[in-house]
Amino acid sequence: MSALEVREVYELDELASVNALFEEIWGTAPGASPMGTEQMRALSHAGNYVAGAFADGRLVGASVAFFAAPVGETLHSHVTGALPGHAAGLALKQHQRDWSLARGLSRITWTYDPLVRRNAHFNLAKLGARPVEYLTGFYGQIDDAINGGDDTDRALVAWELGGPGSMASPPPVRVPAGAVTALSVQDGLPVVGRLDAPALLVEVPPDIEALRRTDPGAAKAWRLAMREVLGGLLAEGARVTGFHGRTSYVVTREPAA
């Protein structure tokens, strides 16, 4: 694996390369990137975060973020994309964390599709971020290679940065004794179980992106089930405490006072 250099990018030619990388990753037509050159230029000039990850001088990942409320505390990471095989996603998050701490920030937020297992594992198990809100149809309908025209429900996660220093992996999540399965995979389809227990497991389909291509009806069923179960639990005040075994959210309810 080539050594990575992660740094901020400012110049138009490099920003155009970031735009082209995003088009490649999201599978969009030219000009339909999730973050265009002009927007990145304006954000960067205004002091926000636009960075690229370079392997032997070649751009293999990039991230765009901007200051958010609460003012002086939070950075919102809007778009991050990376090509496989370089560990660029993790390197970009480390760089983004250091950049934020240097500016006195204590939290980074971002959204992700709660149906994508690898993203849930990366965000919760590797970084230690936690979902704080379920956002239904947040971006409307997006018909690109990743979203496939599905509803864009998103989980908003918050990553509490702590103090300066190395970014340690969080400890493995503990599954509470007596946890019950609130949502499971059976023959590729979602099955809703009990939702009234103090501790619950919410399983994620193995590959929702492939399912969108091969069985859109099943993919839609998963979207609605996750919205009902995880969205409903978060709306009721339950907390996601981690992601277990690369398969399931661990959700707990606070005991009644």
Radius of gyration, taken over Cα atoms and rounded to an integer in Å: 19 Å
Described by its quaternary structure, the protein is single chain
Distance between the termini: 52 Å
> Strand fraction band?
25-35%
Question: How much helicity do the residues have?
Answer: 25-40%
What's the tally of helices?
A: 6
- Series of H and E elements: EHHEEEHEHEEEEEHHEE
Biggest sheet details: 7 strands, mixed
Mean pLDDT: 92
Shape: globular
Unreliable spans: none
The helix/strand class is: alpha+beta
Overall strand count: 12
Strand order of the largest sheet: 1-2-3-4-5-7-6
Written description of the protein model:
The protein is α+β, with helices and mostly antiparallel strands and 257 residues long. Helices cover 30% and strands 30% of the residues. It is built from 6 helices and 12 strands. It has helices at 12-26, 37-45, 88-102, 117-126, 208-214, 216-235, and strands at 4-8, 49-55, 58-68, 74-82, 107-112, 130-135, 154-160, 180-186, 189-192, 199-203, 239-244, 248-252. The chain has a 7-stranded mixed beta sheet. A 5-stranded mixed beta sheet has the order 9-8-10-12-11. Helix 3 (88-102) links the parallel strand 4 and strand 5 (107-112). Helix 1 (12-26) packs across helix 2 and helix 5 (208-214) crosses helix 6. The longest helix is centred in the C-terminal third of the chain and has 20 residues, at 216-235. The protein is globular. The termini are far apart.
